[in-house]
Amino acid sequence: MGLSDSAQAASKKYITMGTASAGGTFYIVGGGIANLLNKYIPGVEAVAKVTPGSSAENIPALEKKNIEMATCTSDQVYFGYKGGAMYKNPYPSVRVIMSSYSAPLHFIVLAKSGIKSIKELEGKKIAMGARGSTQEKMALETFKAYGLKEWNPYRLTIAETINALRDGTVDAGNPPAGVPISTVMDLASTHDIRILPIEEIQLEMVLKENPYWSKEIIPANSYRGQTQDVPTFAYYTVIVTYKDMDEKLIYDITKLLIEKNDELAKVHPVGKEFTLKNATKGIVSPFHPGAKKYFAEKGVQTP
How far is CA 32 from CA 36, 118, 202, 256, 266, in A? Predict the structure, then answer.
């Protein structure tokens, strides 16, 4: 390597973006964001990283500076910054870049199972994500609202969940992710599926105790055979970094995510939700100064 090559390598900014398990929307969107950074920000070399623990893995990794950016859920950002719930200690270095799309909870069963209600999941085999994950918490809060007492948890990634549903290893799975989830589309293309609704009374119970989530609808025809809207609830997807990241770089990244969201939407439809309107939804934790500067220029108030 020549002198100029060494200088160029030294000036490069390497960004690893923690996402979630392969097959989920986090990983797809994270890859799209990494590609945008590589395309439009000189000197940046970005890559998306599979993190099976999702937000629960990403937030500690940010605090340790093992990664530079991450996709996280709104509840994990809330508790990660202040401590509590799944976090014994706070992670005060975590900073928000922006909030974006909602990720509705999908309670999925095969139609041939005959299961038509969350109440019928009592005693069943449930793929509910990694221990401490938002997916697990969403399942547990739902089960509590319905009064379920017993179930057999399977700690599977989204891709593993779909395979387990396909071969009958589990009775149900509950991936929360942006609509449509590609692996669920794949399953629905070969098997008749049913997405279980969450009734209004139970929704109110869940959201009263978890204000960082919101009511959502999985629109009819999002998946083959799904002919009606499905009421559920969702978290917001938040792009985060740590406080010591360069202010101009985070400003440029924030600007890019907002102003090139049409390109992100080509990677996954949720890319269109990276907007000024959604940028602060579900957020009470502090924003990075670079992001605050961009949003202030656009007239958007941030915490």
Answer: 6, 34, 35, 12, 9
Whether pLDDT at 245 is above 90: yes
Count of CB atoms within 10 A of residue 42's CB?
8
Examine residue 302 and state whether it is found in any structural domain, yes or no: no
CA distance 95 to 68: 11
Are both 57 and 118 inside the same structural domain? no
Helix, strand, or coil here: 7? helix
Instruction: Examine residue 19 and state whether it is found in any structural domain, yes or no.
Output: yes
Assigned domain for 89 exists: yes
Average pLDDT, the chain: 93
Residues 121 and 270 in one domain: no
Residues 6+ apart with CB under 8 A from 223: 180, 184, 185, 188, 193, 195
The domain in which residue 89 lies consists of 3-103+236-297
Tens digit of each residue's pLDDT (9 = 90 or more) over 118-154: 999 999 999 999 888 889 999 999 999 999 999 999 9
> How many angstroms separate the CA atoms of 192 and 163, rounded?
14
183: left (phi over 0), alpha (psi -120 to 50) or beta: alpha
Residue 223's Cβ-count burial label (10 Å; 0-12, 13-18, 19+) is buried
Please give the single-letter amino acid code of residue 201.
I
Q: Which two tokens stand for residue 217?
A: 């609808």
User: Each residue of 91-116: pLDDT tens digit?
Assistant: 999 999 999 998 899 999 999 999 99
pLDDT at 7: 42
Does 119 share its domain with 45?
A: no
CA distances, 224 to each of 37, 219, 268 (Å): 34, 12, 18
